[in-house]
Design a protein that fits this description.
Low-confidence stretches: none
Organism: Arthrobacter sulfonylureivorans
CATH architecture: 3-Layer(aba) Sandwich
Largest sheet: 8 strands, mixed
Number of helices: 5
Protein name: Dihydrofolate reductase family protein
Mean pLDDT: 90
Oligomer: single chain
Length: 211
């Protein structure tokens, strides 16, 4: 019998977003997570942090999240115990930051800076790495990766708020048409809804076909 050939490494890419019901990533004057995070959701975030993830982000998200992580590690941070654990735990997670303005070395531990083309870099990462590549915030990066057809899973946690007057960072503007096949769903704390899909890019509305 011939020798078995080892499988080539490969990583899945997941766009991971939190949104309001009307599709905003945040809202002016509202607290983080719209003030609706609960123990089930925070415990799930902690469990997810133990998995083999590499987090992908842009410069703005890096600045925001690294600052929050450092703040959570300080005394009297103002965060809850669960929030502190979630934010400080990000320091140990491998992170790739796409930016032409940031300079090495990056202060946040386990952060790798990529100044070249993000699409080409992620294509190479999918070929050569294992585990899951997951975006964190970074709406323009997520949109570009989805448009390029690189996204294997599209995961949302929908918060039960409508921020029509104060919402900012509209998530779906500029997206292509996408068909979504649901592969997972669950509810946290009786109010937050996780929805996970496999996305398929469409050239336009699907044909209805013959009657």
């Amino acid at each position: 019998m011939g020798e078995e050939t080892a499988a080539a490494p490969s990583a899945d890419l997941m766009v991971d977003l939190i949104i309001s019901l009307d599709g905003y990533a945040s809202a002016d004057g509202w607290p983080g997570w719209w003030g609706l995070e609960g123990p089930e959701y925070l415990a799930w975030l902690d469990q997810e942090g133990q998995k083999d993830y590499t987090i992908l982000m842009g410069a703005n998200t890096y600045r925001l999240m690294s600052g929050m992580s450092a703040e959570a590690a300080a005394a009297d941070s103002g965060f809850s115990t669960e929030e502190e654990a979630s934010l400080t735990g990000l320091a140990a997670v491998p992170k790739v930051v796409f930016s032409s303005t940031l300079q090495e070395p990056l202060a946040w531990p386990n952060s790798e800076l990529v100044s070249g083309d993000a699409i080409e870099a992620v294509q190479e990462m999918k070929r050569t790495r294992t585990g899951t590549l997951s975006t964190l915030g970074s709406l323009s990066l997520s949109r570009s990766l989805l448009t390029a057809g690189l996204v294997d899973r599209f995961r949302l946690v929908v918060f039960p708020v409508i921020t029509g007057k104060t919402g900012s960072e509209r998530i779906y503007d500029g997206y292509p048409d996408v068909a979504l096949e649901m592969v997972d769903s669950r509810t946290f704390d009786g109010r937050l809804q996780l929805l996970e899909y496999v996305p398929t890019l469409l050239d336009g509305p699907p044909s209805r076909g013959p009657k």
